[in-house]
Specification:
Number of strands: 18
Largest sheet: 8 strands, parallel
Bound molecules: zinc ion
Number of helices: 15
Strand order of the largest sheet: 8-9-10-11-12-13-14-15
Length: about 450
C-alpha cells in the first residue's frame, strides 16, 4: 500500500469553478467564481491549481502561488499527492440536499398506474405509494438497508457527489424512524460520502392511524409527542422535515410540528407546494426554515414571502427537484426563473426515492434544471454546490473551494463547467476527492 500522504495538489485544470464568496442569489447565482487557465492550457505557472492538507484546502489560485504556499507551510513534496486534472474542469464536490436514501423495494408498477390516470395522492390515499415502501422498509433487515444504502451512495459518488442529505420517513413509528436515522448515521460514518440526516416522521400518515378520525392530526400529534423527543435524545438528525401538502399534512399541522422541532434545537425544512399550492413556501419563510423543497406549485404570494425573507437577511433556500416533476409528468415545474429573479437562493437535489425519483444522479438534476427550468449551466452548478450547502446549514465548511474549507471536489472530463449539463446523460466525472483523498476515480491517473 502506498504511504499515507496528507497533502494534495490538483494541477493542469482548464478551469476551477471555486464558487467562493458564499450563498448565491439573484444575478449572483450565475457567478461560479471562475479561475480559468491561460494560453498554456492548464500547465503553466499562471494556470489554476488547488492544494489541500489533512483534508482542508490550503491554497487556491495560480499554480506558482499554490506551490509557494505549500513550500511556505513546510510541506515536503514527498507528502503531497499530485493529481493531474488532464485539462478538465474542477468544481466543489456536488452536494445533494434532498434524498430519501434508505428504503426497501421498488415502485415501478406505479408508473403504469399513473399512465392510466391515477394520481400520486390518489395512489397514496389507497394505501400504495409511500405506504407500500413503509411496509417493505419496516420488514427489511438492517443489513439489507445498509447494503442498499452503500450501493446507491457508491453510485452517487461516481456522479460527483461528496455530501448528501437523507431523510427517514419510511418508518412512521418511533422505533422504525430511529432505526433509519441510526443507519444513515452509520453510513455517513463509513464514508466517503458524508451524510446529513433529517427526521421525516411526518412523511405520510402511518398505516396504524388511517382509520382513526382526524387521522393526520392524530398521527402528527404522535410525531410531536413520541417520535420527536426520541429523535432528539438519539442526537443524529440535524433537521426536521414534513410533507406539507393539502390532503396530507396541511400548513397548520406542519407549522405545529416544525415549531416543536425548532424549539428543541433542530433546523427545519419542508416539502412545500409540490403537487398543489398549499402555503408551504409562506410557512417556510415565516418559520425561518433552512429550505423549502419542490415548489412546483408555489404561488406569487409564496415567492413574495421567500423573497422578503432573503432581503431581510434570513434566506430560505428554494431546493428544486426537477427529476421528480419530470418523473411524475407534472404539468408544473418549479418557476426557477421567477425564484432567481426574486432574489431567492436556488438549490437543486435529486429527491432520490423509490416513488417519484429513482434517480441517484446529481448531474441529471443539473441537466433538467437547465433544459426544463431554464436555469443556466452556471446557475445549476451554484445550486448543486454552495447553495445546496446553505440548504443544509453547512455552507461555512462545504460547497466551495476556499482556504479552510473541506477539500471536497470533483474533476470533470470537460474543459468548461458550461458543458456539465450539455452532454445529456453522459457521466463526465473523472475523479472525486473527499476530505483531501481520492474517493473515486474513473481512470487511474494519480502520479
Ligand atoms: Zn422528498
Amino acid at each position: 500500500m502506498a504511504p499515507h500522504r496528507p497533502g494534495l495538489l490538483v494541477h493542469n485544470a482548464a478551469e476551477i469553478a471555486t464558487l467562493a464568496g458564499g450563498v448565491r442569489r439573484g444575478s449572483a447565482q450565475s457567478d461560479v467564481g471562475l479561475l480559468a487557465s491561460g494560453e498554456t492550457g492548464g500547465t503553466g505557472p499562471h494556470d489554476p491549481a488547488l492544494a489541500a492538507y489533512e483534508g482542508r484546502i490550503v491554497a487556491v489560485g495560480r499554480l506558482s502561488h499554490v506551490e509557494a504556499q505549500l513550500t511556505e507551510m513546510g510541506i515536503a513534496e514527498s507528502s503531497v499527492v499530485r493529481l493531474d486534472a488532464l485539462g478538465g474542469t474542477v468544481t466543489p464536490g456536488l452536494i445533494d440536499p434532498h434524498t430519501h436514501l434508505l428504503f426497501s423495494g421498488t415502485r415501478h408498477a406505479e408508473v403504469e398506474m399513473r399512465q392510466r390516470g391515477h394520481g400520486y395522492l390518489e395512489i397514496l390515499a389507497a394505501g400504495g405509494g409511500i405506504l407500500q415502501t413503509v411496509r417493505m422498509t419496516r420488514a427489511a433487515s438492517d443489513d439489507e438497508l445498509l447494503d442498499h444504502g452503500r450501493r446507491w451512495l457508491r453510485e452517487m459518488l461516481s456522479h460527483g457527489v461528496t455530501t448528501i442529505e437523507t431523510k427517514s420517513g419510511y418508518g412512521l413509528d418511533t422505533s422504525s424512524e430511529l432505526r433509519l436515522l441510526e443507519l444513515a448515521g452509520r453510513l455517513g460514518a463509513e464514508g466517503p460520502v458524508e451524510i446529513v440526516p433529517t427526521f421525516l416522521g411526518a412523511h405520510a400518515v402511518a398505516p396504524e392511524y388511517r382509520d382513526t378520525p382526524d387521522a393526520a392530526g392524530a398521527y402528527l400529534q404522535s410525531v410531536i409527542d413520541e417520535q420527536l423527543p426520541a429523535v432528539i435524545d438519539q442526537g443524529i438528525a440535524k433537521s426536521c422535515d414534513v410533507f406539507c401538502e393539502r390532503g396530507v399534512f396541511g400548513v397548520s399541522l406542519a407549522r405545529r410540528l416544525l415549531s416543536a422541532a425548532r424549539d428543541r434545537g433542530l433546523d427545519v425544512r419542508l416539502h412545500a407546494d409540490q403537487i398543489q399550492p398549499s402555503g408551504g413556501a409562506e410557512l417556510a419563510a415565516d418559520i425561518g426554515a433552512l429550505s423549502a423543497d419542490h415548489l412546483g406549485r408555489v404561488t406569487a404570494e409564496g415567492i413574495h414571502a421567500l423573497s422578503r425573507a432573503a432581503d431581510e437577511g434570513h434566506p430560505v433556500v428554494a431546493t428544486l427537484l426537477p427529476i421528480a416533476s419530470f418523473y411524475l409528468a407534472e404539468e408544473h415545474d418549479a418557476p426557477a426563473r421567477s425564484l432567481i429573479d426574486a432574489g431567492i437562493p436556488v438549490a437543486l437535489g435529486t429527491d432520490f426515492n423509490p416513488g417519484t425519483s429513482p434517480a441517484p444522479n446529481a448531474q441529471l438534476a443539473m441537466a433538467f434544471a437547465v433544459h426544463r427550468l431554464r436555469m443556466s449551466a452556471a446557475e445549476s452548478l451554484a445550486a448543486m454546490t454552495i447553495n445546496a450547502a446553505a440548504a443544509l446549514g453547512i455552507a461555512a465548511s462545504h460547497g466551495s473551494l476556499e482556504v479552510g474549507k473541506h477539500a471536497d471536489l470533483a474533476i470533470w472530463s470537460v474543459d468548461s463547467h458550461a458543458l456539465l449539463p450539455y452532454w445529456l446523460g453522459s457521466d463526465l466525472v473523472r475523479t472525486v476527492v473527499k476530505r483531501g483523498h481520492v474517493a473515486y476515480s474513473a481512470e487511474a491517473m494519480i502520479r
